[in-house]
Write a structure and sequence with these properties.
Strand order of the largest sheet: 1-2-4-3
Shape: flat
Number of helices: 7
Largest sheet: 4 strands, antiparallel
Number of strands: 4
Number of domains: 2
Helix content: 40-55%
CATH topology of the largest domain: Mlu1-box Binding Protein, DNA-binding Domain
Structural class: alpha+beta
Oligomer: single chain
């Protein structure tokens, strides 16, 4: 199927909530090509297929936290109803509820994105474990090298953007001395 969303774009829509990697109903409905309302109706009709470890409804606080991360709220994108969050298993279960060709292809892409994310995390953990073992073995000899590698492995802190205006003005004209004109009479 052409026009599928690349795996990299899907991984951007995977959030960490309650210690689980999840995707929200609105993002999934966009990928499946159905309205969020339709997706939620299909889930509610088959609620037995979605236990708590497959899907959960966000709390008001979680929803507000997600909304505050979005700089601009697009009209119609944020509903007054609390969204559903689907774990990897919940997304897999959605394939049995939504049977269109697009939903099946999108589901395959989403499963690939979860697998790629899992592989990246495992690779990073393995690298950190091997580095720790090397540090213990050659601690004194290569201390500087290991510090440099540690610094490279830690993600850089993003500088905070200033809020407001930065106004630079010259000296006010009304505050200085003026020369008086003398009249000759």
């Amino acid at each position: 199927m052409t026009g599928l969303v690349p795996v990299e774009r899907i991984t951007e829509k995977i959030y960490l909530l309650r210690g689980k990697k999840v995707m929200l109903d609105r993002d999934l409905s966009g990928l499946y090509g159905v309205a969020t309302k339709v997706l939620k109706q299909a889930v509610r009709r088959n609620v037995k297929r979605f236990p708590d470890d497959f899907m959960f409804e966000l709390t008001k606080e979680e929803n507000q936290s997600l909304r505050s991360q979005c700089v601009t709220l697009k009209r119609g994108q944020h509903s007054k109803y609390l969204p559903f969050a689907f774990t990897e298993q919940g997304v897999a279960m959605l394939s049995s509820v939504l049977n269109s060709d697009r939903a099946i292809q999108a589901n395959i892409q989403i499963m690939r994105a979860f697998a790629q994310l899992r592989q990246m995390l495992a690779t990073h953990k393995d690298l950190a474990r091997k580095l720790a073992a090397l540090e213990k073995k050659y601690d004194k000899q290569f201390k500087v090298v290991f510090e440099a590698i540690d610094e490279l492995m830690t993600p850089p802190e993003k500088p905070r953007k200033k809020i407001g205006f930065d106004i630079k003005e010259g000296r006010a004209a009304y505050g200085g001395k003026r020369k008086r004109k003398t009249s000759r009479a």
